[in-house]
Amino acid sequence: MSDDLITVTRPSLPDLEKLQPLLEGIWKSGRLTNGGPLHETLEAGLCEYLGVEHLSLFTNGTIALVTALQAMRVTGEVITTPYTFAATPHALLWNKLKPVFVDIEPDSFNLDASKIEAAITPETTAILPVHCYGTPANIDEIQRIADLYGLHVIYDAAHAFAVRYRGRSLLEAGDISVLSFHATKVFNTFEGGALILKDKKTKQRVDYLKNFGFANETTVVAPGINGKMNEFQAALGLLQLEKIDSDIRARQSVYRKYREELMGIEGLQLMEEPVDTEWNYSYCPVLVNERFPLSRDDLYSEFRKQGILVRRYFYPLVSDFPMYFDPSAVFENAADTAQRILCLPIYSDLNDEDFGRIMSCLREAANGHHGASGSGQ
After folding, report:
1. Around Cβ 23, how many Cβ atoms within 10 Å?
2. For the whole prediction, is pTM greater than 0.90?
3. In this model, does residue 4 exceed pLDDT 90?
4. Is residue 372 part of a domain?
5. Domain-embedded: residue 252
6. Which residues does this entry mark as bearing N6-(pyridoxal phosphate)lysine (predicted)?
7. What pLDDT digit, counting tens, does each position of 323-362 carry?
8. Which of 8, 18, 273, 304 has the most neighbouring CB atoms within 10 Å?
9. Are residues 36 and 161 in the same domain?
10. What value, to the nearest 5°, has the Cα angle with vertex 242 and ends 238 and 245?
């Protein structure tokens, strides 16, 4: 049995032979950041690959989200989901906006569009849905509501790189989509992110905002921030982009192998692949229900004992954090999901031995044998 830690996900290794000349080129050019040639090449390459017209690269996804809210001049209240990563509501607070949480759908884990209208007040100016685990939110109904009430729609699409829905890029939905290129994502630059924008004017405003508000060497047009992606990150991104299709196919293979294996274990429910969707298999979420011998948390502990770093993603709900907590607010579906969810390891180079260790741990737990090392053989 391998003694190595197995993580939930990890970046695929870039081609080191190709990386070295890129890094040497960066150093020789003297352009380490501030929109260098690799940055410009990556922006153009991502636009082409994703099928979008305007894209702006960022140093990370959180700064990209903070900037998106600034670019849309969002004020007051923003409707969003309690079932998300902390960065989603934190970006609202950093913009002095009030998150208004709405429950999720029990199957997609996305914002329940049927509950949005009841949460709208005169202070509401935007909706911030999340494409959870890369599964498309109910974009048609959300847009209908936004148009009816004159609201902006900014999608947290951190998990949704390369996802296509009904034949089109999911990133085209709403006013802006926000991508994360963190090391845990399907496409990554170790740290990084991007905004997908509707028009050239909005891209120009975003590009000013992420560079301290500078329009040129001496003119500042807005109170901007430093959100620029550097040339080293762009180099990593260019190498990742070369093999992203094969990485996604490899993830798909792992996901479907999980599906076959988990069918024989009562009490574990793997999330279904979304319909009408070219998915990216960014995560492998499993629900642990009452028919399984262990609770979700006990199963989590068994994995940890064996060096398998599964994740309760997302737990706890962001609405339970002290800065957002409202004792009168009840999110039944989100709360139930947060207590039962477990994301299993999935990445393009997950080998048969490590996959065997994961399944051995699950089978032993299902059969009431806890704490054994498990060889996966």
Report:
1. 14
2. yes
3. no
4. no
5. yes
6. 185
7. 999 999 999 999 999 999 999 999 999 999 999 999 999 9
8. 8
9. yes
10. 130
